[in-house]
Amino acid sequence: MSAAASPAQGMHFALLGHGRFGAAFAQLLLQAGHHVRVFDPHARVPAALAAPSLRVALEGAQWIVLAMPVPQLRDALLALQPLLHAGQIVFDVGSVKMHPCAAMDELLGDAIPHVGSHPLFGPLSLARDERPRRTVICASAQHPQAAARARELFAALGCEVIEQDPERHDRAMARTHVLAFFIAKGLIDIGVDDGMPIAPPSFQGMKHMLAAVRGDAGHLFGAIQRENPFAAEARAELLAELQRVHQHLLAATDDDELAIATSGEPSA
Predict the structure, then answer these.
(1) pLDDT value for 210
(2) Considering the entire predicted model, what is its pTM?
(3) Which residues, 6+ apart, have CB-to-CB distance to 40 below 8 Å?
(4) Is the pLDDT of residue 124 over 90?
């Protein structure tokens, strides 16, 4: 079956990486009727899915899924490069897109179809079957057809697909994903916990955020903060604004000036 086959049919995937997300994504693919071989020398992979080598994992695979941590992606591409052929499509599933997309453009070039993706879900949300389920696709200018195939694939997996260029994606993630993890890290480290027995309704959204961060990708905190090129700027802006609010509170500023804007209102 060629890579152009319908996503509704059982296709063959080589999944490189079996961490929390890789394991959950493998199950999502299997539930959709696809065939999955997994290679990860650093993780325990179920015997039914495990490939003994990278080469064996790639045999017959139409899709190559890069599910390793972002800092390991370049070395993985260098190892993959001589084993791939033009009938395969490579995509990553990392939460940062500029560096991975640039690395794929550089190392896979015109020869191997590739596309960047960021599934905006994780093990917990998949287990709860939370909807909507969304995925961002970052097309390579060299391979628009690969992006079209990836859109079809994720749509068939029940996802709403959002198309963005890598820079726009990373800027958006710096103000959402990065800051959510940054805030969660600070709260957890000072003893605020998602299991606190006494909390007002206003805390429920934060409680959900803390649980999601811990369960889906808490172990990737450092990579999420360091690999996004706009993360430091977003953190600095947030800290400066919190410090400004703190100083205004100490100065007994008029409460009207400190009121939190409702949805749609401009901030002060």
Answers:
(1) 87
(2) 0.88
(3) 16, 17, 18, 19, 22, 68
(4) no
For residue 193, what are the contacts with CB-CB under 8 A and spacing of at least 6? Answer: 210
Tell how strand 114-119 and strand 133-139 pair up: antiparallel
Nearest CA among 53, 95, 89, 51 for reference residue 73:
95
Cα distances (angstroms) measured from residue 139 to each of 147, 162, 204: 5, 11, 36
Distance CA(120)–CA(173), nearest Å, equals 10
- Which tokens hold the place of 46? 């179920």
pLDDT in tens, 160-202: 999 999 999 999 999 999 999 999 999 988 988 877 778 888 8
- The reported pLDDT for the residue numbered 156 is 96
| Mean pLDDT on 78-87 | 97
Instruction: Report CA-CA distances (Å) from 21 to 27, 128, 192, 231.
Output: 10, 14, 26, 22
Q: What is the Cα–Cα distance from 216 to 124, expressed in whole angstroms? A: 6
DSSP 128: T
Q: How far apart are CA 74 and CA 107, in angstroms?
A: 8
